[in-house]
Write a structure and sequence with these properties.
By secondary structure, the protein is mainly alpha-helical. Helices cover 73% and strands 3% of the residues. The chain folds into 2 domains: 73 residues, Winged helix-like DNA-binding domain superfamily/Winged helix DNA-binding domain (Arc Repressor Mutant, subunit A, Orthogonal Bundle); 165 residues, GntR ligand-binding domain-like (Four Helix Bundle (Hemerythrin (Met), subunit A), Up-down Bundle).
Length: 248
């Protein structure tokens, strides 16, 4: 269903304010604007603005009370499992700590999801996995951007697990992988994903081999975590070198 003009404006306000909040634009010295100022800034009615604030409050970014105003919540209250919040955080400046924590979640979830997929995936779910692998291979041959098909593969595996909780992580996975996969490939010095490593997982799932599917997915995600740790270590070494050089 297409959004109305009011819904589009609400969405734009949510996006703009969400990015500003996670970027640290508001503080004790620069508090969250009052409703009248935000309405003027975005050319929005009070009802539209209040709906945007309500949505940001549901994401844990804001707290609002009648006659007390609206203020930004501390980061520990933000809903990191909300795809928008995670995407804003990743796009703001993806720290290695954030990338590492996400990879750790993947390591805890995706290998088991692959094993379950091998055991319970329906024909439609398997077809989605086949399609994603075929698109990855095609992108590899044509030297096109492999990211959409790479993400589609991981989401297809989560959904093929038959576990509703794993499936609910699809949005979070898509938001975070858009940043983390690009970072990993840049660090490896490659532009394309490893089709062969992904195909090992796919083949095992399609063959109903849960143990191999789990092991192959664990290898893939562990490699991503190792790359993040290496990149973080290298960045730390560069910073220490710059500090030493500056003191010489």
């Amino acid at each position: 269903m297409a959004r109305t003009d009011g819904q589009n404006l609400t969405y734009r306000i949510v996006q703009a304010l969400g990015v500003a909040i996670v970027s640290g634009a508001y503080s004790v010295k620069n508090p969250f604007p009052i409703e009248a100022d935000l309405c003027k800034q975005y050319g929005a009615s009070r009802s539209v603005l209040r709906e945007a604030v309500k949505m940001l409050t549901a994401k844990g970014l804001l707290s609002a009370r009648p006659r007390q105003g609206t203020w930004v919540q501390p980061e520990e209250n933000w809903n990191l499992l909300d795809p928008d919040v995670l995407r804003w955080l990743m796009e703001r400046k993806p720290t290695y700590a954030l990338l590492r924590e996400f990879a750790q979640v993947r390591l805890a979830v995706e290998p088991r999801a692959a094993a379950l997929a091998a055991e319970v995936a329906t024909s439609d779910m398997k077809a989605a996995i086949r399609t994603a692998i075929a698109q990855m291979a095609e992108a590899d041959r044509d030297e096109e951007d492999p990211l959409p098909s790479d993400i589609a593969f991981h989401i297809a595996v989560l959904r093929a697990s038959g576990n509703r909780f794993y499936s609910q992580l699809s949005g979070v996975t898509e938001s975070a992988l858009r940043i983390s996969i690009r970072m990993q490939n840049r660090y490896k010095g490659v532009r394309r994903a490893s089709v062969a490593d992904h195909k090992k997982i796919s083949d095992a799932i399609l063959a109903g081999d849960a143990a191999t599917a789990e092991a192959a997915m664990r290898y893939l995600v562990q490699e991503a975590l190792d790359l993040i740790n290496k990149a973080d270590s290298a960045a730390g070494s560069d910073l220490r070198q710059k500090v030493r050089s500056g003191h010489n």
